[in-house]
Amino acid sequence: MSIVSRRSLMLQAGGGLGTIALASLLPRDVGSSLASEKSGLNYDESWFSPERARVKRIVWLFMHGGPSHVDLFDPKPDLIRLAGKPLPESFGTVMTRRKVAANPLLPPVKPFVPRGESGIQISEFLPCIAKHADDICLIRSMHGDSVNHPQSVYQLNTGSVLMGRPSVGSWVAYGLGTENENLPAFVVLPDPKGGLKGGPPAWGSGFLPASYQGVTMRSGANPILHLNPPEQFGQDETLVALKLAQRMNRKHLAERAGVDELQARLDAYQLAFRMQATAPELVDFSQESRQTLMEYGVDAKPTSEFGGRCLLARRLLERGVRFVQLYSGDTNGWDAHNDVLKNHTQHCLATDQPIAALMSDLKRRGLWKDTLVIWGGEFGRMPMSESGTGRDHNPWGYSYFLGGGAVKAGCVIGETDEIGLRAVGRPVHVRNLHATILHLLGIDPQALSYFHNGLDERLIGPTDDVEIVNEILA
Fold it and tell me: What is the DSSP-derived secondary structure letter of residue 161?
């Protein structure tokens, strides 16, 4: 067994943290060059069927903190009738008896109204999204396995309540790659206030190579930190430095055959150089019409920040990025423990108009037919009150909606019980949502796998108890 000195280790690592970040920008063709028994990559593309593919791209609007389904998408007359009373014994004890007595049922804090020709009832919290009631498929029976934020964030994003597995976007990038060699396949637009419970592993690549993790971007003139060279370096100087680094790294690689990470680094430098030219144009909203900016609310409070990210998401999608994920909500976000009305008023005002504008814009530009729009958080909220006017976490029954040309429009899938506590009619587990997402992309969720630690790992896990939610499909 050879002993590696600290100096040797640092020498072999090369490049520093910047190259680790750049490795995440690799396109699919770079990833394929890394395929080897050691890395675990298996490019048997029997998992993908172009004939089965209904969508080319996905935008996931993640409402971090847990939006209240019983206040937004799931009206319950019994919750109004029983307001102020304790949870009926017939629903079982999900809390201690003392907490049940201290937390009576809380009615919806805003009225629900039938929308569109479909008559789907949507809360007055979301008047703009409500105009798209006939465009969406509303799932009222989602359920997961954890009552805690980090574990539920991980499950919705990776299929597991445990940290460290690849995210949905990473699996999509691994399976399909990007359609634009100058942009990554998987882009994340986090809330600029930060504080996601669970952190960046929610969009990490887990045991997949780092080239498939989500690349975080921001709206504004500098979408990717540390991408551009110092001001004193022009394009010519940067290219000279890049070529020198490439020659040195290739010499280093020639002396160490089979070091896939170094080959990835070489290709990452090239992609990063191409992105230096692409990124400024990507965030240049001056190309957009005044009407478009107004629709997204880019120039108005409180929609400017989230509206800018929704517009950036559209620009990414139309340029070939496969998977874009936007987060709404900082450390607490939609986590309305104390005051649902105050919390959801704030977050709905910030997101309702931009999301509706994004949906309309996708239609106008011909992208709606093969784009999948996903809205939802890590769980819903309890029908019982907390602190008088708030609600606690509820992973046992909550709402998601999907939109796009591949989705059955103006329909409702599943239901929760009389007070919105548990999914009872056509329950849709998180793993079945994931299986349906992959299916719409033309990917066989049972076949897409990665060999890791002696196992063929999949997004949907080892269980065969997974199904496509066919009622969602158009």
Answer: S
In a domain, 159, yes or no: yes
In this structure, is residue 1 part of a structural domain?
Answer: no
pLDDT band at 250 (very low <50, low <70, confident <90, very high): confident
pLDDT, one tens digit per residue, over 119-176 is: 999 999 999 999 999 999 999 999 999 999 999 999 999 999 999 999 999 999 999 9
**DSSP assignments along 47-115, one per residue:** GB-TTT---SEEEEEEETT---HHHHT---HHHHHTTTSPPPGGG--SS-HHHHHHS-B---SS-EEEE
For residue 257, is it within any domain?
Answer: no
Mean pLDDT for all residues in the chain: 85
In a domain, 12, yes or no: no
Q: State pLDDT tens for residues 53-107.
A: 999 999 999 999 999 999 999 999 999 999 999 988 877 655 544 455 568 999 9
Q: How many domains does the chain have?
A: 1
Q: Phi and psi at residue 402, in whole multiples of 5°?
A: -120, 150
Q: How many angstroms separate the CA atoms of 295 and 245, rounded? A: 46
Main-chain phi, psi angles of 420, to 5 degrees: 85, 25
Dmax (CA) for the chain in angstroms is: 76
3-class SS letters over 324-390 = EEEEECCCCCCCCCCEHHHHHHHHHHHHHHHHHHHHHHHHHCCCHHHEEEEEECCCEECCECECCEE
Length of the chain counted residue by residue: 474
Which CATH number belongs to the domain containing residue 461 in this structure? 3.40.720.10
Angle made by CA atoms 246, 250, 255, in degrees to the nearest 5: 155
Please give the residue range of the domain that contains residue 207: 44-223+283-472
